[in-house]
Amino acid sequence: MTDSNDKKPTDGESSSLKKSKKKQKKEDAWRPEGPRDPFALLDTLPEKKQQEIQRALHLFSLAPTTPKTLQQAKKHTYRFWNTQPVPKLDDTITTHGPIAEGEVSVREEPYSLPQGFSWDTLDLSSPPVLKELCSLLNENYTEDDDNTIRLDFSLEYLEWALQPPNWLAQWHCGVRVDTNQKLVGFIAAVPADVRIYETEKRAVQVKLLCVHKKLRLKRMTPVLIRELTRRVNQQGLYQALYTAGTVLPTPISSCRVWHRPLNPRKLMEVNYPGLRQKTTLQRALKLNRLPEATKVQGLRPMTKEDAPGIQSLLQKNLCKFQLSPLLSLQEVEHWLLPRENVVDTYVVEDDDGALTDVVSFYSVSSRVLNHLVHSGLRAAHLLYVASATTEMTDLMEDALVLAKAKGFDIFCALDVMDNEGFLEKLKFSIGDRMVHYYLYNWMCPNMSPDKVGLVLPS
After folding, report:
1. Does the pLDDT value for residue 1 go beyond 50?
2. Which residue has the higher pLDDT, 90 or 402?
């Protein structure tokens, strides 16, 4: 008995099979020998095609993603964070203090990286190194869910964000490929004295954790965090602050981003994320119209001589919150003194020359991908506002007018501090993005957004 699968092809079938193989051989003639690198293939495609593929992968990936809600987080397994001194998601915390006491001896040798990679302490005073970091972040740091808008850091912004007073080079922690020395990973910390409820702590703020897109399956992020923790511990510091758009164990507060359009036409044309309300352009222009000029008397840009007055204003305002920075005079100068395309600060000076109010915002630029008209967006993010004599809504409306005059397309603010008092009045709309605040190796009760007196630029 002969199986039907063992039958020999007829003469016609054999001829057709030969023609099919010949055709396939001709089609494959251009292909290089050996297995093809999918990343190399992706890199050869036009940028628009690359974006389409990456968008499809993002939308249809079956791989687990980091949770964006507390409900998702409770079903998620945190392999790394469950080993760290952070509160568990279901913990009810009523006490204050460190979760793990500082170690008597800190590990001397760096943590091991995957084979083929090495640590590098980045010298950000070197322009070529700063440009490398800029390229890594701009190509890999973050982008919106539709993969159409990507952050675009400038060299000046990175100098501002990563080199405040008392910064340490060893806290600028990079990873390079051994074969070509390409920078493929980065994490940083900067000094940050804070008040947590009644406790004043010398801590660090963790910034700009970034791993090259092609290496994210190598679980390099936990190693970066461990290595930075080791380097911070070497300086006798054991607490850190950080923010994220995803839910990790465990937020001490969760805040919402609000948006105020300054250039509605452009935002609608690029389909800006979080501003997709169904409205006509004419209605959007009318709704978001602003005065042509500021109206607060005595409002002017900050100068270096204003730093002591601003420090005093901020100290009086920030002490009422449960989480707030302790800013030295040098830090006030660094974070608030105006820098072109980085940070803008305005003060109100009364008739006697005393400073009564301050408002500050920093600049976040983005690239618009694959748009026929627009290539970039500029967002102003509210940093600090303290008002002793001026109505805060009036002060913030003037800030919107000034930001628009400087060419910003949108103004963003968190619902922290006293911001809720002006958000709806000035026609900010609530966005779909959350910013979660975290403390590393410190437990304290959760706090509502209006009790947070701290803004952490990326």
Report:
1. no
2. 402
Mean pLDDT of all residues in 178-197: 97
- Quick one: 229 and 371 in the same domain? no
What single-letter amino acid sits at 24? Q
* Nearest to 199, CA basis, from 449, 436, 444, 446: 444
What span, in angstroms and rounded, lies between the C-alpha atoms of 249 and 79? 11
What is residue 185's DSSP assignment?
E
Mean pLDDT of the chain: 87
Please determine, for residue 99, whether its predicted confidence score (pLDDT) is greater than 90. yes
Write out the residue range of the structural domain in which residue 187 sits: 104-241
Q: Does 274 lie in the same domain as 401?
A: yes
Q: Report how far residue 319's alpha carbon sits from residue 15's, in angstroms, rounded to the nearest whole number.
A: 87
Shared domain check, 267 and 329: yes
Asked if 185 and 318 sit in the same domain, the reply is no
Is residue 72 situated within a structural domain? no
Of 202, 271, 260, 314, whose CA–CA distance to 428 is shortest? 260
Is 314 part of any domain?
Answer: yes
CB 278 within 8 A of CB 270: no
Q: Which residues contact 357 (CB under 8 A, 6 or more apart)?
A: 296, 313, 347, 348, 386, 387, 388, 389, 390, 395
Q: Which residues pair with 253 in a beta bridge?
A: 437
Do 406 and 274 belong to one domain? yes
User: What's the pLDDT score for residue 147?
Assistant: 61
